[in-house]
């Protein structure tokens, strides 16, 4: 039986899971992401591989922040882990363990998970939005995941939403940040842990007027992003994922704000067919499934990793 290791590299934790070919998780775990330098990071990654017996693995799929050249498996920028910039992670791991490796952008990995086993299965035109520190996504057109000529299709954090705000605050990465929204609400009620999302939603559900206004503005910004995408691509469905997506209020309010935008200008509301907005099937494990699917696709197509210096 073939076994595959899937690794999701995040700014806070590195999550991993051992899968069989059907997508069943055999075991999983996580470690804190080393942020000091590349050497410490790689040593931590190697320990994960060795913990899962590399001699018994068929391949390794990896999800990472940053742009990814999927031909050479090179990471650019690296998001919260800038030392990953220009690192050919696939080459490094293949050279050490002689295993096929596939490296994928985290937002695109989430979309691939939904295309494989979730809400995007059989969908010709759709998108997956991942609500987190910023906003990641994967765009699907003609049944295929769009990467773009520079591997940056779907980088919604760079979408400008409000030109009247200071430079950084005008972009979706700030205005559509779930982390920023949660922090603002916890700060409002002087709660010491600004990162506690559960507490923030308790405040929202308590009918705190100011907290509700912060949440409404956040959902309006997500809805504005959806409307901008829909005006360009004309999607069938958008699935919302990320850490806050299991909260029922999130999808409900995004749908409400989206229809509110369409109703603001009747002419536009008549011209634009509303897109279906649903909760993504996968939450915290989306990138693990997506990284695995990307690896399986590479192996099934017999696409060897290009070890370009």
H/E element string?
A: EEEHEEEHEHEEEHHHHEHHEH
Q: Work out the oligomeric state of the chains in this entry.
A: single chain
**CATH superfamily grouping of the largest domain:** ATPase, nucleotide binding domain
Task: Walk across the major sheet and give the strand order.
Answer: 3-2-1-4-7
CATH fold assignment of the largest domain: Nucleotidyltransferase, domain 5
Task: Count the E strands.
Answer: 12
Radius of gyration: 20 Å
- Which residue ranges are poorly predicted, with pLDDT under 50 across at least 5 consecutive positions? 304-309
The count of helical stretches stands at: 10
The CATH class of the largest domain, by name, is Alpha Beta
Q: What structural class do helix, strand and pairing data support? A: alpha/beta
Largest sheet: 5 strands, mixed
State mean pLDDT (0 to 100 scale): 92
CATH architecture assignment of the largest domain: 2-Layer Sandwich
Strand content: 15-25%
Shape: globular
Helicity, as a percent range? 25-40%
How many structural domains are formed by the residues?
2
Describe the structure.
- With 309 residues, this protein is of the alpha/beta class.
- It has 2 domains: 3-105 and 285-300, ATPase, nucleotide binding domain (Nucleotidyltransferase, domain 5, 2-Layer Sandwich), CATH 3.30.420.40; 119-279, ATPase, nucleotide binding domain (Nucleotidyltransferase, domain 5, 2-Layer Sandwich).
- It has helices at 38-51, 89-97, 106-117, 172-175, 178-188, 197-205, 209-233, 248-264, 266-271, 286-300; strands at 3-9, 13-20, 25-32, 59-64, 67-69, 74-76, 100-105, 126-131, 135-141, 144-145, 237-242, 276-279.
- A 5-stranded mixed sheet has the order 3-2-1-4-7, with helices on both faces.
- The longest helix is centred in the last third of the chain and has 25 residues, at 209-233.
- It is globular, with a radius of gyration of 20 Å.
């Amino acid at each position: 039986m073939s076994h595959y290791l899937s690794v999701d590299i995040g700014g806070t934790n590195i999550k991993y899971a051992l899968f069989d070919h059907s997508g069943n998780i055999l075991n999983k775990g996580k470690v804190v992401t080393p942020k000091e330098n590349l050497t410490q990071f790689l040593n931590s990654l190697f320990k994960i591989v060795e913990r899962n017996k590399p001699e018994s693995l068929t391949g390794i799929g990896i999800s990472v922040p940053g742009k990814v050249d999927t031909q050479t498996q090179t990471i650019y920028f690296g998001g919260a882990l800038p030392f990953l910039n220009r690192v050919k992670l696939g080459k490094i791991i293949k050279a050490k363990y002689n295993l096929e490796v596939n490296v994928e952008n985290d937002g695109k990995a989430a979309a691939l998970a939904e295309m494989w086993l979730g809400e995007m299965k059989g969908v010709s035109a759709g998108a997956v939005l991942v609500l987190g520190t910023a906003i990641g996504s994967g765009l699907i057109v003609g049944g295929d995941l769009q990467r773009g000529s520079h591997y940056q299709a779907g980088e919604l954090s760079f979408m400008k939403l409000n030109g009247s705000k200071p430079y950084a605050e005008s972009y979706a990465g700030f205005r559509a940040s779930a982390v920023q929204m949660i922090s603002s609400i916890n700060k409002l009620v002087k709660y010491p842990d600004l990162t506690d999302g559960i507490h923030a939603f308790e405040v929202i559900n308590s009918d705190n007027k100011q907290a509700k206004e912060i949440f409404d503005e956040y959902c309006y910004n997500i809805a504005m992003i959806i409307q901008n995408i829909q005006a360009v691509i004309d999607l069938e469905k958008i699935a919302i994922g990320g850490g806050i997506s299991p909260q029922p209020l999130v999808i409900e309010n995004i749908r409400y704000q989206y229809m509110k935008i369409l109703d603001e200008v009747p002419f536009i509301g008549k011209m634009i067919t509303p897109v279906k907005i649903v909760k993504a099937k996968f939450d915290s494990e989306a990138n693990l499934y997506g990284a695995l699917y990307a690896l399986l696709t590479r192996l099934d197509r017999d696409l060897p990793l290009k070890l370009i210096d």
